[in-house]
Amino acid sequence: MEIITGRHPGDLISELWTPNGQQMLLKDVIDQCFKPQRRNKEAEQLVATTKLAFTCLHSNPQFRPTMQQVYQALTSGRPSPLPKSYSTISLGDLIGDGHGMRG
Fold first, then answer.
1. 101 close to 95: Cβ distance less than 8 angstroms
2. In a domain, 82, yes or no
3. Domain range for residue 59?
4. Is residue 101 a part of any domain in this protein?
């Protein structure tokens, strides 16, 4: 998460618990040195990697991916197509309902 956002992940996780935290757009929290194009492979990979990073933060270790699953996700080279425009993807879209996230 620190590489993706350019800041300590604890700061972002804390913000997620604010009233508007899950409404924050991914494009607004990623490191501003990285600007993927809308609906291209870079954006798809960024979304997939961020979603994977959030699953690694689940408070229950049984729901976190194994290192083998993380490796496969990062090396598969087949991110899912974006469900909507990259510029409209919120952090809430990536973490689902947020239950189980560390807070």
1. yes
2. yes
3. 2-95
4. no
DSSP assignment letter at 46: H
User: Could you tell me which residues come within 8 angstroms of residue 1 by beta carbon, excluding any fewer than 6 positions away?
Assistant: 9, 12, 50, 53, 54, 57
Mean pLDDT computed over 50-75: 90
pLDDT at position 83, please? 84
Tokens found for residue 77: 């080279």
Q: Which residues pair with 78 in a beta bridge?
A: none
Whether the pLDDT of residue 38 is over 60: the answer is no
Does residue 102 form part of some domain?
no
Of 15-24, 70-79, 92-101, where does the model show the most confidence?
Answer: 70-79
| Residue 86 DSSP one-character state | G
Number of folded domains in the chain?
A: 1
